[in-house]
Amino acid sequence: MADRTRLAVIGGGWAGLAAAVEACQAGAEVTLFEMASAPGGRARTVSAGAHALDNGQHILIGAYSASLSLLRTLGVDPAMALLRLPLQLRYPEQAGLQLRAGHPVPSFALAVLRHAGWPWRARLSLLRHCTAWALRRFECPEALSVAELCMGLADEVRADLVWPLCVAALNTPAERASARVFLRVLRDALFSGPGSADLLLPRLGLSDLLAHPAAAWLSGHGARLRMSQRVEALHASDAGAWLVDGERFDAVVLACSSVEAARLTQDLAPGWSGLARALRFEPIVTVYLESPGSALPSPMLALREGPADPAQFAFDLGQLDPRRSGQFSLVVSGAAAWTARGLDACAAACLQQAQRQLRWASTPRLLRVLAEKRATFACSPGLARPGSAIAPGLYAAGDYVDGPYPATLEGAVRAGMAAARQALPRSASR
Ligand SMILES: Cc1cc2nc3c(=O)[nH]c(=O)nc-3n(C[C@H](O)[C@H](O)[C@H](O)COP(=O)(O)OP(=O)(O)OC[C@H]3O[C@@H](n4cnc5c(N)ncnc54)[C@H](O)[C@@H]3O)c2cc1C
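Above are the sequence and the flavin-adenine dinucleotide SMILES. Below is the predicted complex in structure-token form.
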């Protein structure tokens, strides 16, 4: 044990867990510090028992290769744990865009041509725009917003497709969202091979999907998990080593939130810390409803958002897990305007929206409202995100770290794996 690299991972969300697993596989001696009593971070189950609810409804897509590979490493079979559906944006009153299984590019083109709700000029203009984006390799100027990128598209296409996709993927409304990041997500969804655009909906609670299997795997591979331990201080020690609350480590992966990472590095690396501190956030509100005997026409439906209608999506949890039959979640992404009005007002508006836009076998009632004020960073045009390297032997991991993705599970997992690889010498034995 004595000559293995001693690595501290600070933070046990998906980024920290991915970093810890990667480092264990490379032979390091890993200690993971997590201030909460359980791992999982923002993607965790928040209550137990019959009404165990996730901190928010999460969706993965087929292109999330690093997350899927991590699940397999942990012994979680993605085919069992996730419901795979070809990409669809179905509305209660409209079949919407529905891709078929197979390669996403022809399937997307066909789905657009078949879209009965859009006039022909709208369908053709969307295909022309997509072709132009592909010819430019999905690159565009840094300063462009999604709203500006899509100015030439028909109103129906923007309202039915672009706005909901943008707020679902970037958690930032189109007029404030980075076109460059949006195009990268589109590129990966359409061009990472068959199934890459598929929606993957967790059948398990989020903690059972990743956090619990990861904790068990790490314990089984000799990692030390220090739950309920908030790291207060990080200092440089002698010979390139680091002190985490006074305990010596050869290297550190900082996988806590950007706010905490900025605090821990403010004296060590003021420039990096300033970039992390400058990030702004977008909230997400998740409203859980109960309506015994009810079912939606598909596990996930897009909803019509409007001044009195906060939610963009509804999920039928019973179609993901039969034990949750009669439970539903409504998701309000980019929810700043609604959190400003107060959670009670948002929940009441969601309930009314659900009653107006969806069919119910019994009157739906509110089960629980969850709001995450710092759900993701605001993915705005020209945003400068802090990189992974902070100082020799000190690396950041997290969904906010500079990379191709917006704040997503995949961004977090990729950042975690990359930070662990950077933090360790080629062989983790010293
Ligand atoms: C409501 C909601 C819905 C979402 N929906 C989706 C979705 O559909 N698809 C998708 O891909 N992504 C989604 N996301 C985003 C996704 O959850 C995040 O991108 C991902 O969980 C971030 O993981 P992370 O490890 O980078 O950060 P976190 O999960 O925030 O983990 C950081 C961890 O560090 C710990 N910590 C902080 N400070 C310290 C300290 N000083 N010492 C020790 N521990 C510390 C925290 O307790 C936390 O556990 C959603 C997020 C929310 C909130």
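The chain has three domains: 6-75+204-279+382-423, 87-197, 281-377.
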